[in-house]
Design a protein that fits this description.
Low-confidence stretches: none
Mean pLDDT: 79
Structural class: alpha/beta
Helix content: 55-70%
Radius of gyration: 25 Å
Number of domains: 2
Number of strands: 5
Largest sheet: 5 strands, mixed
Strand content: 5-15%
Number of helices: 18
Shape: elongated
Order of helices and strands: EEHEHHHHEHHHHHEHHHHHHHH
Length: about 375
Amino acid sequence: MERIKVDGKEILLLGTAHISRKSVNEVRQAIKEFKPDVVGIELDQQRFEQLRSKKKWDEKKISHVIQEGKSQLFLLNLFLSSLQRRLGKIVKAKPGAEMIAAYKIAEKQKIPVALLDRDVRITMKRALNKMSFIEKIKLLSALAIGLLGSEKTLSLTKEKIEAMKERDVMTEAMNELAREAPSIKEVLVDERDLFIANSLMRLPFKKILAVVGAGHVEGIKQHVMQKNIVNLVSLTELKEKPSKLRHLKWLIPLLLIAFLGMAFITKGPAKTIELFSYWFLITGFFSALGTLIARGHPISILVSFFAAPFTTIHPLLASGWFAGYAELRIRSPKVKDFNELSKLSSVSDFFKNQVTRILLIVALTNLGATIGVVIAFPFLVSLLA
């Protein structure tokens, strides 16, 4: 517990670990003794509503998620949530529950509550924009191991589990991500410390009790004491990181057209048709394989097969979109699927739930199509040589 006085404000930083009688009692005792004008909690509006209502996701149109190209981000959020729940079970904690307990205690005593954290969707998007391709692969591998592995494969010794109990599960999950992708530590940890500190300094109250994860206390304290006031817009902007591969989506169709044109001139129309047939089969096969692995409907698999040869040479289309839409029309998610998003705790759950299966179909179909392109190009060149 850290007490800070700055610019006429008195801020009490209460670092919590997880939901327990001790954590709840600490919050209740702090409110009783400190008598704050407001209680700030380390949650954003989305997480707060989800935890309070016990409903993880709104019944949003999955077609919009697919169309806007947010399938991977949506899946990453779901994977992270599942990993948090798994860590929570290991340390016998419910992620975010201590913050809701603080909210309920404050509400009962008619004390205003302020949400201090940045929107988790913005945090994850900014983190993804900073990550390199290799870091994204490592991150996905770490999340998969986190959902599939045992405590042994997760390297969770008794000592590490006990250490985790001294931190909040959300912070620990974020720190795990930062360890797998060092370039995003600034977004996941440092930026959030600065954001929460500024949220506190902007509150129009004199006595503030801030209930935050134990892992954030020191960083927040330093920013408040040093009066590191920043424009919060700078911490919520979503600037797309220019991809080094962004030109490939235009280069591939140009190269294929030039290649087939050269084949037509030098080898004739029959050879050109043969080469395109191989392109069709290879890209279609790997795209359909991705849909199959994601357990798509047979019609969705056929759609991805026939879409891939054309979407791979169109810079603004993706075969996964077509396969996802087909799956959505054939096996539309039910209310039950949306309600159970908050209960996903293993990789198999992601394949069984129709919402996440559609998103996996989009992601794996696109991945398969990309693999098909990588294999098809050198193969076609070898046939023409």
